């Protein structure tokens, strides 16, 4: 089998693109009696979008609040969503938070007044997020480009208590 130099160079360029992720929108859909989010996406400078605001936990939460996730992909970026067969395991909110601490603590350590690892139940509080850029390096390079919608739902005994929707843009920006 013979390869032409041009096809090899093209293959290397296509497979070595770095993926960048930018916040597009953050919105709380339901559950304002349990949780209130003033988190919003704003433009930090000409090229960077950040998450900024406060997450107000109004009620004591323990592992009876089970977090479920669903992901949707819009390959053309036109918000025609296709359900994506990827999920985070459903687990209690304390266990969910512990898993984030285990894997991604360096990305969330500067969030003010976040519950400490091992703190369960999570008592009412305000957690403040200041100019948080999405850490693109946590995204595997095989994730398709386009718009992504993540829906996180907290349920108690299969009854929805709160729902948050996050939309992100995944694109390739650089060649290595």
UniProtKB/TrEMBL annotation:
Signal peptide: 1-18
UniProt KW Signal keyword: yes
InterPro entries: DUF1091
Assigned keywords, A-Z: Signal
Pfam families noted in UniProt: DUF1091 (PF06477)
Protein name (Swiss-Prot/TrEMBL): AGAP008958-PA-like protein
């Amino acid at each position: 089998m013979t390869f032409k130099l041009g096809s090899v160079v093209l293959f290397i360029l296509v497979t070595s693109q770095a993926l960048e992720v930018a916040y597009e929108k953050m919105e709380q859909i339901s559950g304002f009696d349990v949780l209130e989010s003033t988190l919003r996406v704003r433009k930090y400078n000409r090229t960077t979008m950040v998450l900024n605001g406060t997450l107000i936990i109004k009620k004591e939460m323990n592992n009876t609040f089970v977090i479920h996730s669903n992901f949707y992909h819009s390959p053309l970026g036109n918000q025609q969503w296709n359900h994506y067969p990827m999920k985070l395991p459903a687990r209690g909110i304390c266990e969910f938070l512990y898993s984030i601490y285990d894997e991604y603590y360096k990305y969330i350590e500067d969030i003010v007044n976040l519950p400490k690892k091992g703190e369960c139940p999570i008592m009412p509080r305000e957690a403040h997020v200041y100019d948080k850029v999405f850490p693109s390096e946590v995204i595997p390079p095989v994730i398709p480009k386009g718009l992504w919608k993540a829906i996180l739902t907290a349920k108690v005994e299969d009854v929805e208590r709160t729902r948050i929707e996050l939309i992100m843009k995944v694109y390739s920006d650089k060649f290595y």
